[in-house]
Design a protein that fits this description.
Elements: H1 2-5, H2 9-136, H3 139-157, H4 160-168
Helix pairs in contact: 3-4
Amino acid sequence: MKKSAQRTPRQKYALLAYNANDSAHQKKVGEALIRQQAIYNYSKHEEEALKNAERATTLWRWLFGAFVAIVLIICSTLFLFNRKKRAAGRRIAMMQERYETEKTLLQREMEEMNALLEERQSLLETKEDLMERRDSESPPERRFLLFSEECQGATHKQGLGQTLQICQE
């Protein structure tokens, strides 16, 4: 036991060298392990960042598509609204033109009707005047008037020779 307890300087230095190499080796292995974990963590974070970037790109595409769709809907709605507004304006203009022509025609007809009514009124007044004159005259004059009316009617219907015969009878 003494031998084993006592070591030779060679063994002692060999053991010290082995322990030094072993700790250096362990240190190198530990550092390598830390580097590998860092690389793994970096690639894991890089992979997550890439996935997030893809999600963001997809989201931006969807947002852009939605924006374009909304703009198209608004533009088409405005286009249709303006088209209907112009069509309504044309219909209103046509109706207004028809109204004006109908109004002009009705005014002409009213003027003609008023002229006819005035003419009728004047004829009625003339008739009333003639009837009053006939009623106001005495009976012999009335006979003469009737006689002269018959003669005038005869001249229109027959020749002058026959008129004298009718009037003399």
